[in-house]
Design brief:
The chain is an alpha+beta fold and 407 residues long. The protein contains ten helices and 15 strands.
Length: 407
């Protein structure tokens, strides 16, 4: 099993200078390879990343000797990433020709621009026969090629073979993302319960049990005024000036803080869910359609629904549980969890409602979570509704579960 762990680095001034130089070499190699790719393609050739890497190795000693001041992985991995970008581009192009994807979503490889607040380079472990352990970890230190040992904020949490490490800059901070090959040991979850989870703006996650609702952090809403003020201040600074660079760094730090607050809340909620439930049931939300609502689009984008589902997928797989994704057309909010009568007239703004059949008063989010949890124990959808099956996600080969609708 391949896992990743991202840790903040504490480099010295010299090490930070090396990181910037390595990121610049990676950017230059990517732009050189992209220009060469386009030139060869226009000449009728069929370029690929293997031939481009060989071509760069043949000329860099004479034409680009400064590349040898950093690890050779930096330019090589940048060209490999370009090859992956072109593979994704051709896949998107095929999907567009099948009318399965709009043209604006086709990912066209582009040149990298200098001066961005985010930059990275990658170093593989064991790619050189003379240096099989190019990346090593010793407590809160990591050894990288040429630069040596760099201090980290914490130790690597997973035990396994380090495949590679990607050093990246976010705002003015440096991070090391370790890719670790951990031995896969199938385990069964210690619990057997099922929990349904409903997501919304007021409360990010509402569970089907008596657990209190997880509040939505809404970091963008909290810092929106400051974000606007800093953005206006940046626009007033003269391009190329030092004051503009300082203002840009300040704005980048604020964006990073907003992202970190959101990520921290999502990790805490998803980890608590995985530790307290063996099977988790969520809805397949149409986030793109929800973002079309101009009154809720900013609030929904501020929560990170896709990231919530992504984290649940891999965390349930690691814990031996299962993630069940219900069909997006299942009326979880409109269905009474007591008598199974559907309230077809329930509006989006109504957060509470009373069932006209049995008189039960429902909290909309809690009722939806209960209906999602009921899908698994009874093994089928309620007879009052017929739709497509739920799909198991995140369990991998360990556990495959599918909830089918009633016949």
């Amino acid at each position: 099993m391949i896992l990743a762990h991202r840790i903040r680095l504490v480099p010295t001034v010299e090490q930070e200078r090396y990181f910037r130089q390595a990121c610049g070499v990676a950017r230059f190699a990517s732009n050189w390879a992209l220009a060469e790719w386009q030139r060869r393609y226009a000449a009728g050739e069929k370029p690929n990343e293997v031939t481009l890497r060989k071509a760069l190795n043949a000329i860099k000693r004479e034409q680009f000797p400064w590349m040898r001041d950093v690890t050779k992985n930096a330019p090589q991995q940048a060209i490999k990433n370009l090859g992956r970008a072109y593979a994704n581009f051709f896949d998107d192009l095929k999907a567009h020709r099948r009318n399965a994807m709009p043209w604006k979503r086709v990912r066209v490889p582009k040149f990298k621009r200098k001066g961005k607040t985010h930059a990275s380079f990658r170093a593989d472990n064991g790619c050189d026969a003379h240096h099989p352990d190019a990346v090593a970890v010793n407590g809160k230190r990591v050894k990288l090629s040429i630069i040596g040992w760099v201090t980290m904020r914490e130790e690597v949490r997973f035990a396994g073979q380090i495949v590679s490490v990607t050093v990246s800059r976010e705002a003015d901070a440096w991070y090391a993302s370790f890719t670790i090959d951990v031995p896969e040991e199938p385990t069964a979850h210690v619990l057997t319960n099922t929990v349904g989870v409903d997501l919304w703006v007021s409360a990010l996650a509402t569970r089907s049990d008596d657990t209190p609702k997880a509040p939505a952090p809404k970091p963008l809403r909290r810092y929106l005024k400051k974000l606007k003020r800093l953005s206006r201040a940046l626009s007033r600074k003269r391009r190329g000036s030092r004051n503009r660079a300082k203002e840009k760094a300040t704005l980048a730090r604020l964006h990073a803080r907003i992202r970190h607050i959101r990520q921290d809340a999502l990790h805490k909620i998803t980890t608590d869910l995985v530790r307290t439930a063996a099977t988790i049931v969520i809805e397949d939300l149409n986030v793109a359609g929800m973002l079309a609502n101009r009154h809720l689009s900013r609030a929904i984008a501020d929560l990170g629904f896709f990231e919530f589902r992504r984290q649940l997928a891999y965390k349930t797989a690691m814990a031996g549980g299962a993630l069940i994704v219900a069909d997006r057309w299942f009326p979880s909010s409109k269905l009474c969890s007591v008598c199974d009568v559907e309230n077809a007239t329930l509006a989006l703004w109504e957060r509470t409602w009373t069932c006209a059949s049995c008189g039960t008063f429902h909290d909309r989010d809690r009722n939806a979570a209960v209906n999602l949890a009921r899908l698994v124990p009874q093994g089928e959808y309620p007879e009052s509704w017929a739709g497509s099956a739920c799909g198991a996600e995140g369990a991998g080969r360990r556990r495959q579960t599918t909830v089918k609708p009633a016949a």
